[in-house]
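The records we work with from here on pair a chain with its fold. Taken together, the tokens spell out the fold as the letters spell out the chain. To see the layout at work, look at the sequence and tokens printed below.
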Amino acid sequence: MTTRVFTKAPATLPLMLKAALPAIPVVGALPGVKHARGTVPDLVLERHGVSTDPAHLEAYNDVCGFPRSDTLPATYPHMAAFGLHMTLMTETTFPFAPMGLVHLRNSITQHRPIRVDESFDVTVRTADLRPHPKGSLIDILTAVTVGTELVWEETMTLFSRHKGGSAEAASAPLTGVAVPEGVVHWKLAGDLGRRYAAVSGDRNPIHLHPLTAKAFGFSSNIAHGMWTLARSLAAVQNKLPDAFVNEAEFRKPVLLPTTVVFGSTIDDGVLTFGVQGARKPVPHLVGRVRPLA
């Protein structure tokens, strides 16, 4: 296993261009990253001594709806890891082209809240390349430590569509879980993708403008899945325990601009939440939070 240590966050715009240009039809003839199908990178990426920029945190809270606090939102460590995620996905040993991937599922384990004034280390690697009925799945694993204490973990499950897939060995965690009915409406503006991209660094063209999204087969630009998850957790922030596991499944993209409905229920200490369309009950996101034993 090879370990690569970064002294600062990798610049995401060059990585996004590296990932996106070969996938755009107009420039598809340009040389791009050739990925080794069927392999998992034998690589660990690390950042040490990561500190939180208060101005950046304020901007993130503003776009995602989190209240001010002396601890970080549960989704915020993803921001510190995103440059490492992109670096890993643009490696030649990563099995799929990044622009062809769908963020299908996400799992966050918060062992304890991270204080805003704490510095931490981030470690990213890949694991579990496996079949899916319509292609393949692969996980990107992120761990955050304060000193030697593991405080936060994330599993991003990415889907690559291709022929020759087969059934998953185990059912997805949220199989059969419906989006709860709700009454809270969120009116999402057409520039939401650009606003979230400005704070997250995720400038995937499918999120930015209708024209750039159409180049990838969407009728309009779509909201980031991690924004939808963050906004949902912000809506139930006062119901979250200090230590918990959050599982989420992204079902249908949120085409912008639009209005969506958020709903949540609590049953025996387990919080289930979700987002669906306001005009038609199209499920966009379903999630579940359970206290960490």
